[in-house]
């Protein structure tokens, strides 16, 4: 990907404005990391707690650039066949049946065993041509004519062996397929790797990438995010609900509310015509914010301390 082809990423300000036009309100730190990753053509490793917008960052970048988002969801045991490529065995089998039926025609007129084998070899190579290749996300991203955003999601859930494969791919953006040869990226994709820090990422992979840690946003930034997604909500209620969510995140919970859950809660309060936060409306809608019964019980126990103080005036 070249700068002249994508003026949307030509400056930090352009990135912030472009993201905002798609409803992704980001800090200057995030916009700077995206700018540098694009200019330096380096992958960006995005770490942080679940629900802070790591995956959404890659999706929004793809929308901003109007290029495909190709996502590889990582999991334990992920291997080359699922990440890079595999062969279309069903199609190869069908081709074998056709070849078997035409074997007589194929060998007609062949002089001796050597010539017969040579004719068969000419057709044998076809079985391992690009026609029979099934590209998986890593290879598919390298095949895009205009480039792509490659999202390697939750890389911390994969094995260290898979990290070794990634290092090989991300060093030169090419892959060696024994039956075909070396396949190079038509256009170098922009790569986002996300991690929820469930395990340490290898130093080698970290060195290959720019690092970006996204924490939960400040009250002010989260208010801007809610405003962009739920513009009809009252300003005072918006401030109260964001403050309350931040208070919840300070509790000892199994799963703190994500930004998407703050937005869902704002929409819920709007549907319920709530004017301000009180104990009743909070208790009846806590299940929008919290996904574990233990967390709901913890929040209800602390509700008196968490309730917004009444305004004086």
Could you characterize what this model shows?
The chain is α/β, with parallel strands linked by helices and 313 residues long. It has three domains: 6-78 and 143-213, Rossmann fold (3-Layer(aba) Sandwich), CATH 3.40.50.300; 85-132, no CATH class; 219-298. It has 16 helices and nine strands. It has helices at residues 12-21, 28-40, 54-65, 80-83, 89-101, 103-107, 112-124, 137-142, 160-172, 203-208, 219-229, 235-249, 259-271, 279-289, 293-301, 303-306, and strands at 44-47, 69-73, 85-87, 133-135, 149-153, 174-177, 181-184, 190-195, 210-213. The strands form three sheets. A five-stranded parallel β-sheet has the order 2-5-8-1-9. A two-stranded antiparallel ribbon has the order 3-4. Strand 6 (174-177) and strand 7 (181-184) form a beta hairpin. Helix 13 crosses helix 14 (279-289). The chain is elongated and about 95 Å long. The relative contact order is 0.13. The model has no long low-confidence stretch (mean pLDDT 87).
Number of helices: 16
Q: What is the CATH class name of the largest domain? A: Alpha Beta
Structural class: alpha/beta
What is the alpha-carbon Rg in Å? Answer: 26 Å
- The low-pLDDT segments are none
In total, the number of domains comes to 3
Strand order of the largest sheet: 2-5-8-1-9
């Amino acid at each position: 990907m070249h700068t002249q082809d994508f003026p949307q990423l030509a400056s930090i300000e352009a990135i912030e404005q472009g993201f905002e036009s798609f409803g992704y309100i980001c800090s200057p730190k995030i916009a700077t990391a995206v700018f540098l990753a694009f200019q330096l053509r380096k992958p960006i490793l995005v770490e942080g707690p679940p629900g802070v917008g790591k995956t959404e960052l890659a999706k929004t970048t793809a929308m901003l650039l109007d290029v495909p988002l190709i996502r590889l969801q990582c999991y334990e045991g992920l291997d080359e066949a699922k990440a890079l490529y595999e062969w279309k065995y069903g199609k190869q089998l069908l081709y074998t049946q056709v070849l078997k039926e035409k074997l007589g025609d194929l060998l007609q007129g062949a002089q001796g065993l050597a010539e017969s084998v040579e004719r068969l070899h000419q057709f044998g190579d076809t079985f391992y041509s690009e026609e029979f290749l099934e590209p998986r996300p890593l290879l598919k991203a390298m095949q895009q004519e205009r480039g792509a955003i490659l999202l390697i999601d939750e890389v911390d859930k994969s094995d260290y062996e898979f990290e070794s494969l990634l290092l090989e791919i991300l060093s030169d953006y090419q892959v060696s397929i024994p039956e075909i040869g070396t396949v190079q990226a038509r256009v170098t994709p922009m790569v986002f790797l996300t991690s929820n820090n469930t395990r340490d990422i290898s130093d080698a992979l970290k060195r290959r990438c720019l690092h970006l840690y996204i924490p939960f946003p400040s009250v002010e930034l989260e208010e801007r995010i809610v405003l962009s997604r739920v513009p009809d909500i009252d300003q005072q209620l918006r401030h109260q609900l964001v403050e309350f969510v931040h208070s919840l995140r300070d509790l000892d919970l199994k799963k703190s509310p994500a930004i998407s859950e703050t937005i869902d809660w704002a929409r819920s309060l709007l549907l319920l015509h709530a004017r301000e936060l009180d104990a009743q409306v909070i208790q009846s809608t806590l299940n929008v914010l919290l996904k574990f019964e233990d967390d709901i019980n913890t929040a209800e126990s602390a509700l008196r301390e968490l309730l917004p103080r009444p305004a004086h005036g």
